[in-house]
Specification:
Order of helices and strands: EHEHEEHEHHHEHEHHHEEHHEHHEE
Radius of gyration: 23 Å
Shape: flat
Distance between the termini: 23 Å
Structural class: alpha/beta
Number of strands: 12
């Protein structure tokens, strides 16, 4: 599995420019007027991972297949979106389908690019979007709680659980805080996720700065960093302008351009890594002469469930996983060397897969 990240923000903060650059497409019209994105644009990108190239080189793999990340460019929200202002609820619904929110904030000064509120204040922008998500949740919660009354009277256990969780979410939102701050027990985790509340989505703040500020950021991005730290959220500094430029270059040229700008890596790499950390994701590999492939799982995933990411039959008929740690694979120059060095392990159903594991699953049909 990869994961799906919704790109949200007020109009004209650089969302579509960033989306175009990240997905290397021009499918999202980047224009200097509000609501130029009328339908959510969806783009997939391969997740860059230098380990995959090294593994493929050792195994002489004919094909390299990275894991995928999906970006959804969601049209600009405005104050009042929860009540249908702008393009309103249509786009709030699109956010429900994502795993996390990349909240693009305007941290650049440019008199030629109109701000919907006529000023540059990324913290206020973030609060505007957060408020709209909470208001939309509040309306949804009130309707759903009213609809559960009859089932609760009939002692429907699922309805009782939903009512309890919705009440907790409502109490938190009425305190002016997002529902993600509710402490949920492990027994309630699945039901909580099924509620699909907007303000439970993990948030990654993307500070869109000017080209000359892409390394250190500026006073605007510093304020966002302070806000993110206080909330327990993450933030990255990216220049959408730079990302757009390097997306048009060949790999070698792009690397040279980044070095000239004083950047160690592209914004895409930083954004994906931050997204992985935000959602507690990690990668394992399958490697052979046919292909070297990366697979994304959540941290703490056991071997059968990791196998199920490849195919459901692998999980159902799981027998064992032949496993080599990434560093051992490199040091032993491949699978055969790892076997001879005693570095290949036979792991059972309770094994928790580690980031970088090279795995081969045995299963019964």
């Amino acid at each position: 599995m990869g994961f799906k990240m919704g790109i949200v923000g007020l109009p004209n903060v650089g969302k579509s420019t960033l989306f175009n650059a990240l997905t290397k497409t021009a499918s999202a019209q980047a224009a200097n007027f509000p609501f130029c994105t009328i339908e959510p644009n969806v783009g997939e990108v391969g997740v860059p991972d230098a380990r995959l190239d090294k593994l493929a080189a050792i195994a002489s793999s004919k094909q390299i297949i990275p894991t995928r990340m999906t970006f959804v460019d969601i049209a600009g929200l405005v104050k009042g979106a929860s009540k249908g202002e702008g393009l309103g609820n249509q786009f709030l619904a699109n956010i429900r389908e994502t795993d996390a929110i990349a909240h693009v904030l305007r941290c650049f000064e440019d008199g030629d690019v109109t701000h919907v509120d006529g000023r540059v204040d990324p913290v206020a922008d973030a609060e505007t979007i957060e408020t709209e998500l909470m208001l939309a949740d509040l309306e949804s919660i009130e309707k759903r709680r009213a609809g559960l009354v009859r089932k609760i009277k009939g002692n429907d256990k699922e309805a009782v659980q939903q009512e309890r969780l919705l009440a907790q979410a409502q109490a938190m939102i009425e305190e002016g805080k997002p529902a993600r701050l509710v402490e949920v027990d492990a027994d309630d985790a699945k039901a909580w996720k099924m509620l699909q509340l907007l303000s439970t989505k993990p948030v990654l703040y993307v500070c869109n700065v000017g080209e000359s500020e892409s390394v250190e950021g500026n006073e605007h991005s510093a304020k966002v960093a302070e806000m993110a730290a206080a909330q327990g959220n993450a933030h990255v500094i990216i220049s959408a302008q730079i990302e757009e430029e390097i997306s048009q270059l060949e790999a070698d040229e792009a690397q040279m351009f980044l070095e000239e700008m004083g950047l160690a890596e592209a914004g895409l790499d930083r954004l994906i890594r931050a997204g992985y950390e935000l959602l507690h994701l990690e990668t394992y590999f399958t490697v052979g002469p046919k292909e070297a492939r990366a697979w994304t799982i959540r941290q703490g995933t056991q071997a059968p469930q990791a196998a199920g990411v490849i195919h459901g039959d692998f999980e159902k008929g799981f027998i064992r996983a032949e496993t080599i740690a990434y560093e051992d694979y490199l040091a032993s120059n491949g699978e055969q060397g790892a076997k001879e060095a005693g570095k290949m392990r036979a792991e059972g159903k309770s094994y928790v897969v580690k980031d970088g594991d090279v795995m081969h699953f045995l299963f019964s049909k």
